[in-house]
Amino acid sequence: MCNSKKKGVEKSKRNKKSGTGVPHSKKGATPLNPLL
């Protein structure tokens, strides 16, 4: 579950970063900070 979510978040982060550079997902914004 964690791995799957991480993979999804990473993909979302990449897409979001390419567009705006900042994660718009509320759920992703939290784990994205430490991930970076």
Can you tell me about this structure?
This protein has 36 residues and is mainly alpha-helical. The chain has helices at 2-19, 26-35. It contains two helices and no strands. The protein is elongated, with a radius of gyration of 9 Å.
Give a quick precis of the structure.
With 36 residues, the chain is mostly helical. It is built from 2 helices and no strands.
Map the helices and strands:
Blueprint: H1 2-19, H2 26-35
Structural class: mainly alpha
Into which percentage range does the β-strand content fall? under 5%
Main pleated-sheet profile: none
The helix/strand series, from N terminus to C terminus, equals HH
Helix content: over 70%
Number of strands: 0
Radius of gyration, taken over Cα atoms and rounded to an integer in Å: 9 Å
**Poorly predicted runs:** none
User: Number of helix segments?
Assistant: 2
- State mean pLDDT (0 to 100 scale): 58
| Cα-to-Cα separation, first versus last residue | 20 Å
Shape: elongated
Key attributes of the depicted protein:
2 helices, 36 residues, mainly alpha
